[in-house]
Amino acid sequence: MSRDNDFGEEFSETAEELREFMKDESFVHYVGMISPPRPGVRELLEFVEHEYYKPDTRRNDLFLMRIIRWEDIVWALISIPIKERSYVEKAVRSFGLRIANGVPTMLSGGKAERFPYENERTFTFENVSGHPVYRNNPLEEKRN
Known about the structure:
Number of domains: 1
Structural class: alpha+beta
Shape: globular
Helix content: 10-25%
């Protein structure tokens, strides 16, 4: 997985280093699907960073984003101070998303595979009920 350092340069972080970081109870973590894109995720992440953790400021050091490839999907895992989680909670619905408890789970080879980085402070971005992304019935589309 990769992250940016204080100079905006990408660097690698081991799985063990990330697991160690996630033990820090002062951070909350959010997982969102980037590719294929889940509508609203990129926009939400950009909004939160630019509104509350502006690039090229000291506050930006508190907005930690990792890009993780898991189950042939590219995910963003962001970490922010837990005391500032209201920033995400206030913004999420305006991007057609909701915060789901827990991490993504995929069915693979007949068994459930859970996102490899999780704890009780890790949540997932999902689209809200009734979002157009869930309207994929071709028969229904023809009638309208």
